[in-house]
Amino acid sequence: MLREVLAGVVAIVSKEAVQHQGITLTMEGIVNLQLSSKSVGVFEAFYNSVKPIQLITSNIEVVKQGKVPGGKTEIPFEFPLHTKGNKVLYETYHGVFVNIQYTLRCDMKRSLLAKDLSKTCEFMVHCLPQKAKLQPTPVDFTITPETLQNVRERSLLPKFLIRGHLDATNCVITKPLTGELVVESSDVAIKSIELQLVRVETCGCAEGYARDATEIQNIQIAEGDVCHSLPIPIYMVFPRLFTCPTLETINFKVEFEVNVVIVLHDEHLITENFPLKLCRA
Amino acid sequence: VAPVEFSDYHPLKSITVTDSKSRRGARKGSTSSSSSSSSSVAPDPLSSMLDGTDPLSMFAAASATTCTISSRREKEDEVGVDFEPWSSKRGEILARFTTTEKLSINLFMGSEKGKAPSLASSAVSEKVRTRLEELDDLEEGSQRELLNLSQQDYVNRIEELNQSLKEAWASDQKVKALKIVIQCSKLLSDTAVIQFYPSKFVLITDILDTFGRLVYERIWSMCSDPRPLPDSFTADEVNDTAKETCLNWFFKIASIRELIPRLYVEVALLKCNRFLTKCGIQETVPRLTAMIRGIGDPLVAVYARAYLCRIGMEVAPHLKDSLNKNFFDLLGTFRQIHGDSVQNQLVLQRVEIPVYLTLYSPAIHWILQCVSYRAPEALLTEMMERCKKLGNNALLLNSVMWAFRAEFIATRATDFIGMIKDCDEAGFPQHLLFGSLGRSLACADPPEAERLPILNEAWKVITKVRSPQDYINCAEIWVEFTCRHFTKREVNTVLSDIIKHMTPDRAFEDAYPQLQSVIRKILTYFHDFSVLFSMERFLPFMDMFQKDSVRVGVCLSIMDVFIKHQQEPTRDPVILNALLHVCKTMHDSVNALTLEDEKRSLALLINGFIRMVSFGRDFEQQLSFCVEARATFCNLEPVLVQLIHTVNQLAMETRRVMRGSHSRKTAAFVRACAAYSFITIPSLTSIFSRLNLYLLSGQVALANQCLSQADAFLKAAVSVLPEVPRSISIEGKLRSSEGFLLDFINNFLSALLVVPDHPEAGVLFLVRGLLNMVQDYTWEDNSDAKVHVYISALPLLAAMSQESYLYSIPKVDSNETLYGGDPKFLAEINKLCETLIGQVLDHLKTLGRDEVGRTMPSLLSTRPSSQTWLTFQTCSTASPCSPGPEDIDCIPFFLHISMCTGGIVSPCNCILCLVPTICQPVSWRALNVLIFIFQYFIWTS
Description:
The complex is a heterodimer. By secondary structure, chain A is mostly beta strands. Helices cover about 5% and strands about 55% of the residues of chain A.
């Protein structure tokens, strides 16, 4: 990443020649942290302290004050992606409470009579693939009324036995999440089985932290009363733009989890949670 | 902060963020994919990156520059013509699975217009606003449930959706197109009104097919620069934009929340995997196969499998393993069909188990057809074994018999019968099973020794089927097997069984198509009509066709077969009686409303039959048959004509047998024939048929020495002449009858040569009679026809005046012998000729008075024959005074006259009357001709 440059051209298209006071390019990488409305009351004091974290910034003047001739003018440029100090360039990510965004802004200053012109465009940063070969970490699971937590009246629960496995919880972001699930038995008919992909964003520092989970995607893998003791595939493609490699820094964290949600016909909802670790490979 | 409106049309938005903790509450309602869209979502900065355009439109724009390439058919070697295509099943399914119950469509799409824009903010650009509205429409708020649709309404709605899909695609609204497709496939998870489900499947997969094709073609067209991809392209030849677009589609589909739409849409786009990787399809199909396991409802699942197999066969027919996997998965989930959920649903919908089970047939048939297509014997055997192991397998058994190769079934027919017998009575209807078995056996032959036991076993079951409709459906199939391998005895038994079942309560009335098909099958195998009609139950079987149109249809098919296959004329009383009966039925169906064409085809068939009847030497029998036939077929004129011809032929045949000299008995017989014709002809309405038949019959009578009969015929013909209308209708068009009349008269005249005068009537009474009629006939105005007749009468008279006639009829004394060249006779002829020539010249005069140049040549040019011309040329070279070229038109005419009259009329006589008449009106040219004729006369005589 360090060796990479951001290159391109500034294109100016106009009918007539344009007088200007200089054209500049500004590159910026920022982490924006925001607190969810729920957390605001609790961490009001803390709220103010959440400031955008600047990862990279750079500014160059492309053209000195002068005149650009009519027609289309293209001015090539290149930015080396040098970080400030020991900061790391995180992968571009757009979440709800955490945003990592890289932008490039071009400004054309003009005389007092004319408005300054400005154009902003985002550029994406992807981490380099991990060098180390990823070892799959399969997870087996069994769900019965007894394994459930957070149940009010255990005796009212119908009997069921659901088994299954995930092929890996450390997933390559470009590869689907896979596994299998078997309904061995269930007293009450099953209405639906879904995979819920959840991202957990944590913003925090020494004073405290705010943790928010949001659903990104919900994929139904079974509909209706599926055949018992027949393995049903678990398969989910990670949506682009909404997922990124799991990220842990001092100030914030972006993590992902998958919930296997089983809805029974009597509206009982059974959820089994699996934290995931996403990476690029 | 990025503008709010951008995030609103992010393509993935509808499945975005919702607070997981609030899910439990939201869960209760629908499970729609857009349930979360109303939750408060922080503005998504990512969307700003998209620069206001969703990725779909971006690639659409990219591809808009390249024109779409018309659809192309991929010819896979592996699917041959022997694979019955889906298109042939479609109609069958739609026709078979219908309902009278009310249906409902639950859609999230609203009407495109008609909603007041809620966001009237001026800050929002026009484009953004319309996009927002469109999305609003597709939001939950516009969810529309169409209730109480009749089946036809439902079909129309689906067709509308199909149309709006195409429109949306054409107008670049890719997101909307996708939404339509998703909503449609969602309908397939709804099994309300379950009897209609197979048809619904057909309708909706049509939409999916359209969609799949559109996407494929769009991506394909993106790669057409610089030149179109070859049919057998690989992923390496696909450019990056196309790949990215394709990938985009797959990502979008992968994020569809609900299982069934996701599955169907992905299957619809299966072919697009070719753009991405070489083995994309190969990897995807097994995954999709496994994915279907998640569908709980067995009916929905089996149809999903059928769709996957169908697309799989189209796109990658070599992937047999996946097809097999589908089938084995189906077996694995087979017990679901008898599970509690299904039973509850059936009770709720009040659907019987046997009816429910038949809903599976089209899908399982299709899957098995794909699986068994060119499959090795071992695989088929394995599949059968696995079916066998499963309890309650009648449904599968049925499909196996339908879909597997007929030969495979036929060789194991006895096993199958055993299996069918073992099946649970309460489940799949047994008669359907036997029906399927019969279908296979109709195409392939079981081992010889097993045939009779098979038939016995099968019929034992079939005959017990109570419902007449079910019974006949099954029996009809087995008739083919019976006809194919057995004799009339067995077929007769089968027929009597059918009669026994179909007669009570007039059940046959509802089964005409099947009964007709029974007849057709019998006719295919039994071409020998003596065998056919010796089946006792055949005619009673025919009696079941009591609806006229059906009855006639059956008779037509019988006669068709008879005419095609009967080689030899027959006198078999059984055949004759039966066919006469059949023909009578056909004939009796003719009424005032019958079309001409129909009558013609009926008459053609009956004529064919009449021609095939021959009693050999027993002429009297033949005549009496004709009498009977005349009585039976009196309404069909062509048949009467045929009968007259037959009788005439009969008379001539008698003459041939008697070598020209009749005995007393045969003489009486031929007179009877003549009498037959004489009384039959007047009943014909067509005047020319009457005339021609009179003439023909007269000639036949003459040939058989029945002089008075011949006279009667010819007199009748002459007396009918005045009735000839001036115009007749031919093929619906009104035409002048003149040509026909002239032809007839010429023909008649030539026949008159040999007709001896009646001793009591005057000399040449027939010729005179004819000429009188011609004289009195109201010819067309300005027509030369009359003169033409006179001119053609001249050669006759000339021939009559000769010492020995050009031809004669053995044993009939013509006028030559009667008069023996009596001068009085010749004088009569001369007088007649003079009158005629006078008439002709009179006519010429009127012509001359009008426009000589115009009319005359047209009159003349009709007459000359090459021979006359030849004569003329020889003459003119010999003659010192040849006419100028400008007269050439007239000459043949005169020449003709002269040749006809030459040798009879004295030249002086002729010339004397010619000179004054021609000279005056005509002019010099005529005079020239006259001189020439004069010379000719002298020269020849």
